[in-house]
Structures are given as structure tokens and as C-alpha cells.
Amino acid sequence: MKSFQSIQEVLDYAIGQEQQAYDFYMGLARNARDIGLVRALEEFAQEELGHKARLESVKKGGATLPSSEKIRTLGLAEFVAIIEPSAQMEYKDILLLAMQKEKYAYALYTRLGDSCPDAAMRKLFHGLAQEEARHKLRFELEYDQFVLKDN
Description:
By secondary structure, the chain is mainly alpha-helical. It has helices at residues 7-31, 35-59, 91-115, 119-148. The chain has a single domain (7-148), classed as Up-down Bundle (Ferritin).
């Protein structure tokens, strides 16, 4: 993982990651043909902007810390094949891709929190990790209901 010299660098990195996630989901939305899929992808993108805004607020000294309640997931993302984005993706593939991205974000925030010497920042990043776990759980539940129940 990247080495950081200050909390500001950590926050800047995390803000950049949230912007990349937003751009990613919006790029998929622009290429999607189904209006329902476009709306779902735009919703995912807006959630990433919410994370970015929270981090920017923390950087300015004004955010509240997220809940540190442990979120359990179904663990589906750990057992599915890696999905590469494409313009012809079906909803089930979008869900798999979203699970993978949230799994990565969870790991990122967990590592950032674990490596952060400042207790408040450590709590912030661990709370953000739990938010990512909550998103992953949402995608896993949707996948379970939409894909696995139909098969």
C-alpha cells in the first residue's frame, strides 16, 4: 500500500479513491442501455460522492465519525470470478463488479485505519470500512435475490 507522510495525504488519497469510484460508476451508466441499470449505477455513483463529501468535511475539521458497528456480509464477493467492466454488462455482472469494488474499498479503509496513529482518524477509517461493508452486503443481498434465487 502507498506510504503516507500525514493525515492530510491519507485523506487526499481516500478522497481521490471515492472520486474514481464515482467516475467508474458514471462511466458504466453512460454506456448502459437499460434505464433501470442506468439509475442503479447513478445511485451507486451518488453514494461514492457521499463518501467523498464526508472525507472532505473531515479534512476541513467538520465531519462526524461514522458508526463503527460491525457489518456482516454474505461473503459472496469472496467466491465470484473477477468481472471486467464492459458496455454490454448485465445487471448481475454489475452487481458482481460492485461487490468487488466495495470489497476493495473495505480493505483499503481497514488498512488506512490500521496504519493511522491518530485515534480519531483510525475510528473514521474503520467506520468508513463498515459503510463499505454495508454497501457490499446490499449488493450481495440483491445478487442473492436477483440472480441466485432465479437459478
